[in-house]
Design goal:
- This protein is α/β, with parallel strands linked by helices and 422 residues long.
- The protein has two domains: 135 residues, Acyl-CoA thioester hydrolase/BAAT N-terminal domain (Immunoglobulin-like, Sandwich); 272 residues, Rossmann fold.
- Helix content is 18%, strand content 31%.
- The chain contains seven helices and 25 strands.
- An eight-stranded mixed beta sheet has the order 11-12-14-13-16-17-22-23, sandwiched between helices. Strands 2, 4, 5, 7, 8, 9 and 10 form a seven-stranded mixed beta sheet that branches.
- Helix 3 links the parallel strand 13 and strand 14.
- The termini are far apart.
- The N terminus is likely disordered.
């Protein structure tokens, strides 16, 4: 627990969250402290709890200026969870006390709540040390005002449809995730897209023998037939296994204008892919003996999957040459789950060879596999839901956090340019 607030200190020390203490999850917040002594050294802290009850924390030490102010957009952290000028550092540097924890937040109904505080101690380790001079709560919403959420059942799958405010016609977007997650979909709905999100795996991955592309085609049809959707403006987005399913979808099923592929594979991974009652792609070869254990108990899985360019994997390679969709490929250079940069380059080369110019690609140095909407806690390692081992995801925290900001802007820019009516 934090030390109780001093009423005498509360009268002159204030922690400001600008422009408002309430914002959308993907919006930055300006943290500023006023009323301190000139050149006073303080500890700023952030604390949040994920949907599974795991507490995440960060702390950084700052020195006030001559006017007794600390401004995170201007001032450098001296030490702590991060160093240097990092306006959103208290958010992306939050970690759980136990190792290998991911900040799970799968449903969009509840906001992400972060408690900021400023303390008169100079100790980033002991949360109970020192008096809390001021505090403020940042409520970070996933669903903006007027966005609606409806659960949709598609055979074995449970999907969620997010509708922006207004009458439409909206561009329709199918947001695929390897396992159920509504975060990205709800945030894209805030930007004017009608988004249907659904997982690739509807139960434990180990129990699934193959994936049927038909269900994802059905999801596209649902979007296409919705009265508020412009059926000529459909898109798909997915990361990891969901990314290769999305790539398969736009390669085998016509009618999609744009697809965003994030840290995925150029071949069908994990399990065979079926369509209209038959197997259309085998699964990319895997060799679990190539898992590399690390000293902190996590594992590097980057070399487990085979090379899609090898002859033995020809039947798993996704025929991207068939797609007429515009593709945005985003790859993290330090991804330790897939060799995504190589996969990205292979897709680009194959499209160019086929005489197509429907692809953009961006590579982010020192970023890891879990490239997500910005301002959430960076995840170093956690359990891989498919193979049930602890994965090391890669990336340097600061560079990864900055890459998420850039990637998120790129995704919005691409989808607007390809799906929005200008």
């Amino acid at each position: 627990m934090f030390a109780p607030l001093s009423s005498s200190m509360l009268s002159h020390v204030h922690l400001h969250l600008l422009p408002s203490a309430s914002c959308l999850f993907d919006e930055p917040v300006h943290v500023k402290v006023t009323g301190l002594r000139s050149r006073q050294v303080v500890t700023l802290r952030a604390r949040a709890t994920n949907e599974r009850g795991v507490v995440f924390r960060s702390a950084a030490i700052y020195r006030a200026d001559g006017n007794g102010e600390v401004d995170l957009c201007r001032d450098a952290s001296l030490c702590g969870s991060y160093e240097g000028v990092e306006p959103m550092g208290l958010l992306w540097s939050m970690r759980a006390a136990a190792p290998h924890k991911y900040f799970h937040w799968s449903e969009a109904i509840s906001p992400h709540v972060v408690r900021f505080s400023v303390h008169d101690s100079v100790d980033v380790e002991d949360e109970e040390r020192g008096v809390a001079l001021a505090e403020a709560t940042n409520v970070r919403h996933l669903m903006g005002e007027g966005v609606t959420r409806v659960v949709v059942h598609l055979g074995k799958y449970t999907a969620v449809l997010f509708t922006p405010p207004g009458e439409g016609q909206f561009p329709g977007l199918l947001d695929l995730s390897t396992f159920a997650s509504e975060k990205r979909a709800s945030l894209l709905a805030n930007k004017g897209f009608m988004v249907l999100c659904m997982p690739v795996f509807y139960e434990k991955a180990a129990n699934i023998k193959y994936v049927e592309l038909d269900y994802f085609e059905e999801a596209l049809c649902l979007l296409k037939q919705h009265p508020k959707v412009d059926s000529d403006r459909l898109g798909v987005i997915g990361r990891c296994k969901a990314g290769d399913i999305g790539l398969s979808l736009v390669s085998f099923v016509p009618g999609v204008r744009a697809m965003v592929w994030i840290n995925a594979c150029s071949a069908n991974s994990a399990v065979p892919l079926h369509y209209k009652g038959r197997q259309i792609l085998s699964s990319l070869s895997m060799d679990q003996r190539k898992v590399i254990p690390t000293s902190d108990g996590a594992n590097i899985g980057k070399f487990v999957v085979g090379n899609p360019e090898d002859e033995e994997n020809q039947s798993s390679r996704i025929p991207v040459e068939k797609t007429s969709a515009h593709l945005l490929l985003l790859a993290s250079e330090d991804d330790l789950n897939f060799d995504c940069k190589a996969y990205m380059e292979s897709i680009v080369a194959r499209l160019r060879k086929a005489g197509k110019d429907n692809v953009e690609s961006v590579c982010y140095p020192r970023a890891g596999h879990l490239l997500e909407p910005p301002y959430g806690p960076y995840c170093h390692s956690c359990v891989n839901g498919f193979i049930s081992i602890i994965n090391l995801w890669g990336g340097e925290p600061r560079a990864h956090a900055h890459a998420e900001v850039l990637a998120w802007r790129k995704v919005e820019e691409f989808l607007r340019s390809r799906l929005m009516l200008m």
